[in-house]
Write a structure and sequence with these properties.
By secondary structure, the protein is of the alpha/beta class. The chain has a single domain, classed as Luciferase-like domain (TIM Barrel), CATH 3.20.20. The chain is 26% helix and 22% strand. It has 5 helices and 10 strands; from the N terminus they run E-H-E-H-E-H-E-H-E-E-E-H-E-E-E. An 8-stranded mixed beta barrel has the order 1-2-3-4-7-8-9-10. Strands 5-6 form a two-stranded antiparallel ribbon. Strand 9 and strand 10 form a beta hairpin. Helix 2 packs parallel to helix 3 and helix 3 packs across helix 4. The longest helix is centred in the middle third of the chain and has 16 residues. It is globular, with a radius of gyration of 16 Å.
Length: 224
């Protein structure tokens, strides 16, 4: 099943421009925006601001675990919990590639924090003795977790085996009609115009190879 929605990667040269872009997205009927750390600062803080400027829109945070500074996943999970609560359950967490064993470990810890309120892990990347997360997120089970494939990153067997099963959404490049075959997990199709299609997939069917990404990506998602 494909539910077409609209969204985009949100940015601005300063906070005024970011607010103008966010408010324009709201007026244009955009359903979800995604932010990432950059010159304007922390993505979670910026997304919280966007949530106050544009009620009702879904608020995505894109996290790079491999090439940039980042939080321990249990701290990320706690901060995303607070963000989800203050935004009324509108938070979405997207991991960017490359996808490795560390990505799967981080996603597992986040899910445990959001579901059980505690996470314990031996590592090897993110050891934790018993992180506590109270209260739980607004959304039951926590924010949806997405894998951002819009830069051409892929998930393959090996170090990241099982990662897809931990995620709710996959963000894929623009340029092709939504696939007719069911996929697991859902795919978000991005287009240069900003329209995304999200697919809810049928478990057990392997996803096809992603299409060649055209520039520039803009993005959208369907949430449960």
């Amino acid at each position: 099943m494909c539910d077409a929605v609209e969204g985009l990667f949100l940015s601005g040269r300063d906070t005024g421009a970011l607010r103008a872009a966010a408010e324009r997205a709201g007026r244009d009927g955009i359903d979800v925006v995604f932010l990432r750390d950059g010159p304007l600062g922390d993505a979670i803080v910026l997304a919280s601001a966007v949530g106050s400027w544009v009620p009702g829109i879904l608020l995505g945070v894109r996290i790079d675990l491999e090439t940039g500074p980042h939080r321990h996943p249990t701290l990320l999970a706690r901060e995303m919990t607070t963000f989800d609560r203050v935004s009324g359950g509108r938070a979405v967490l997207a991991f960017t590639g490359p996808f490795t064993e560390a990505t799967a470990e981080a996603a597992t810890l986040c899910r445990e924090m959001w579901t059980n309120g505690v996470a314990v892990g031996a590592g090897p990347h993110y050891p934790v003795a018993g992180a506590i997360n109270r209260p739980l997120p607004e959304r039951v089970g926590g924010p949806p977790i997405a894998l951002d494939l819009t830069d051409g990153a892929v998930t393959t067997p090996g170090p990241a085996t099982g990662l897809l099963a931990l995620c709710d959404l996959v963000l894929v490049p623009a340029g092709a009609a939504p696939p007719s075959a069911p996929l697991t997990p859902p795919r978000l199709r991005t287009t240069s115009a900003g329209t995304l299609g999200m697919l809810e997939l049928d478990p057990g069917v392997a996803p096809p190879e992603p299409p060649t990404p055209p520039p520039p990506p803009m993005l959208c998602a369907r949430m449960p």
